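Subject: for your reference before the review

Hello V.,

The reviewers asked for a structural picture of the protein, and I figured it would be easier to keep everything in one thread rather than splitting it across files. Below is the amino acid sequence we used in the manuscript, unchanged from the supplementary table.
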Amino acid sequence: MKVLVTGASGFLGSHVVDRCLANGDSVRVLVRDGSDLSYLRTLPGIEFAVGELGDTVGLDDATADVDVVYHSAARVGERGTRGDYVRDNLLGTQHLVEAARRCGVARFVLVSSPSVVGNGRDQPDLDESCPYPATFLNHYSETKALAEQWVLAANAADFTTCAIRPRAVWGPRDRLGYLPRLVAKLLAGRLPDLSGGRPVTTSICYCDNAADAIVRAGTAHASAVGGRTYFVTDGERINTWEFLAKLAEIFDAPPIARRVSPTTAAIMASVMDGVWRFPPLARRYPPPISRYSLSLLTLTSTYTLAAAERDLGYTPTVDLPSGLEKLRHWIDEIGGVDEYLRLVRS
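And here is what came back from the structure prediction:
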């Protein structure tokens, strides 16, 4: 097939490109002027479309003669105002959907996130029937939920749409996501134990597993996936703080010793969320702690794979030990932990 991948110069998008090429697809990537294309330039046969999600003409050119759009580009993290997130995550998605429909694209796969249903409480073994919350934990979660609803509502007989929600994607080439930020804090000795002594269980998703599910959504039967969402994980339920202790061991970081009570952390997060409503601050820095970042470390969040297994034929192929070994191998390839941390901080 002819496919368009957005966000291809980023972490997960680059792995989607890898999977599409492995499937024999003809791949076009939408990249912004000035994007780091060092990895994509090593891949033979990639077609580059330079443009922005707000550029209507450029999006028409990017989606011309395309069978499937894999929309991975998004504003992630917590740096920016609500307007920034609306522009990049909601309006950008709307523009791309409209261009895809104008140009006769048959399928649109949105890379979404389980955070769209996060409600600030423990959520064990969720399935896709879980509703959106009344209030969202941050601008990212809210605007991804709005974009997801827009994409699903666009599903039609001649335009199949669906959304994949990979949980905490991790692995090689990641320098902005969940895991590198934790490793950086571990190595700096700046991550206290916030568990309060209670078990916290989570689901995560290795990059190759996530990319496999996303590309499967581009080829699954339209009647099965049209208008639907899918949680995707590694299929393992992980004790969050045991996992962090393992990371500290793997990366020769000091063990987590300092403890901060969940109540104290929650108060700090609430204060920071209020302070970070100030636009000049929000645009310049991410908050040091937020309700969202705290939820990743203190709340149980696990997801069932039944729908993805049924409709996509998805089965995770990389488990936690194998993924950690692949990650460590990549870090050694790029020059070791110090270079990894430089990439995380840059």
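For the response letter, the relevant points are probably these. The mean pLDDT is 94. The domain at 2-345 is CATH 3.40.50.720 (Rossmann fold).

Happy to draft the paragraph if you're swamped.

O.
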